[in-house]
Amino acid sequence: MPVLKERTQVNPRISMITLGVSDLARSVRFYEQGLGLPRMASPPTVAFFPLNGSWLGLYGREALADDAGVPADGSGFGPQPELRGGGRRTP
């Protein structure tokens, strides 16, 4: 019979939440002015907000889909059996 090693308990947590949005400027205004979240310095194509131990990232929907290697039309963020590793399409 195999000897079981002592298990290390994992404390799950989410460190980053990324949203693809259709209108980045409008979404940034909502999180900054509507919810009062402080925006961190970031390039104009992305916005980061600290969330007490985690981060919220906002990207344009097309840019996020392109980065993930999926279509931006809404169907690309579901299960994609043809994708392998890193979210990039394999040739």
Kindly describe this structure:
The protein is α+β, with helices and mostly antiparallel strands. The chain has 2 helices and 3 strands; from the N terminus they run βαββα. It has helices at 24-34, 61-68, and strands at 16-21, 46-50, 55-60. It has a 3-stranded mixed β-sheet.
Task: List the topology elements.
Layout: E1 16-21, H1 24-34, E2 46-50, E3 55-60, H2 61-68
Tell me the fraction of residues in β-strands, as a range: 15-25%
* Proportion of helical residues: 10-25%
Q: In terms of per-residue confidence, which ranges show pLDDT below 50 for 5 or more consecutive residues?
A: none
- Give the class from helix and strand content and strand pairing: alpha+beta
Contiguous helical run count = 2
Shape descriptor: flat
H and E string = EHEEH
Return Rg in Å.
18 Å
Number of strands: 3
Sheet with most strands: strand arrangement: 1-3-2
Main β-sheet, in a few words?
3 strands, mixed
Mean pLDDT rating: 82
